[in-house]
Design goal:
Layout: H1 3-15, H2 21-41, E1 45-48, E2 58-62, H3 64-67, H4 69-87, H5 90-110, E3 115-116, E4 123-124, H6 132-153, E5 154-156, H7 159-181, H8 188-196, H9 200-209, E6 212-214
Helix pairs in contact: 1-2, 1-5, 1-6, 2-5, 2-8, 2-9, 4-5, 7-9
């Protein structure tokens, strides 16, 4: 799941409009933002194994601290607590928490049974990735609907609010296509370095969102 996670961020902005889309984007991506750091530190591990699933060659055999349900909830409570302490926006803090937790829930739909409930606990996953057509249709539909919801609930105040939004959406779509059809990185370390570029996305989302105004 990639653009499906971002779909939840767009919806969050509609229901908690005083919050930043950048923060909501960071929330839904948080496990994946921390994961490449943990890979480089040797805390978690992944194998590049063609055929692991029909959609991705990545074998996520060891990522309990970023992608177990228990730790996802813990990361969500931590992030939302910091957000609440700084912004004092309760509805936004709730949607930050839900955004982080949604990462595990959406991954549960697409992953094979490799998502632990807690570190060293039982692993689950429905395995939608074993059907690439269904994966693409469902995730693309989620993303398209969420973009329309966000666009319908905000309006640009200048050209950045419009051009920045559409360039972000196109970039996400291109990344998704590349991940689905491109050649995987040669090594887990290369994958981790590539994953670190994901940190740019919340800042990009926050940037153009500041140039859009919620519609009352």
């Amino acid at each position: 799941m990639f653009i499906g996670h971002n779909a939840f961020a767009f919806v969050s902005k509609r229901v908690a409009p005083r919050g930043s889309l950048g923060v909501y984007t960071a929330a839904v991506m948080l496990p994946d933002l921390i994961w490449p750091i943990f890979l480089l530190l040797g805390i978690e591990h992944v194998r590049i194994q063609p055929g692991a699933t029909r959609f991705t060659p990545l074998d996520f055999y060891d990522y309990p601290w970023t992608h177990s349900l228990l730790m996802t909830v813990a990361w969500g409570l931590f992030f939302s607590g910091i957000y609440m302490g700084i912004m004092h926006y309760f509805r936004g803090a709730i949607w930050v928490l839900l955004g982080v937790i949604s990462h595990w829930v959406l991954d549960f739909i697409v992953h094979r049974p490799d998502l632990p409930l807690y570190p060293n606990g039982p692993k689950y996953g429905l395995g939608l990735w074993n059907s690439p057509p269904a994966t693409i249709v469902i995730e693309s539909a989620m993303f398209a609907i969420a973009v329309l919801i966000y666009r319908g609930g905000t309006r640009p105040v200048d050209r950045i609010g419009s051009i920045g939004m559409w360039s972000f959406i196109i970039a996400l779509a291109l990344i998704y296509i590349a991940n689905a059809s491109g050649k995987p990185p040669a090594t887990p370390r290369d994958l981790a370095y590539l994953g670190l570029t994901g940190w740019l996305l919340p800042f990009w989302a926050g940037w153009f969102d500041r140039h859009r105004q919620p519609i009352e």
